[in-house]
Amino acid sequence: MKPSPSAPKPKATDGKTELHVVLVQPDIPWNTGNVGRTCLACDAQLHLVRPLGFRLDEKYLKRAGLDYWQHVHPKVWSSWTELEAHLPELGDPWFFSAEGERNLWQVDLQPRTVLIFGRETAGLPTSVREQHRERLVSLPMAPGPVRSLNLSTSVGIALYEARRRLGFAG
To answer: Cβ distance 149 to 117 under 8 Å?
Structure first.
């Protein structure tokens, strides 16, 4: 299958890419464990925004992250407001939501990119979606009954697409 002519082209980078994955108020520990493992595989920094629906020492979190969790070293923020103040330092933010008018294939990802996801049960808070409406992005899906994908699946799709476009050889 050929990429769409309007799809952004992969960029050659000088190896100075920085990818960040933010989970805002995640509820399910095994999703966060899986996301942490994927972040390690893609050399991305995981950020967790409180409140969390679990404790960071919870066995399900560690089970999903397997023996990799000890290497994840997530940056934990006390609130969205605290993290948001540091977004310019982290990179170019994209907020994942089913409300996004553009999908991931249609946005230009920069070598310093922040991929932001909401909680499994409710997505990003309404105030965040409203404030950053022009930065909302969705994942392309076939028409039908599916409204959303699992959080760790969504992060995996977005993170590997970002790495592909930025020239990550792995």
So the answer is: no
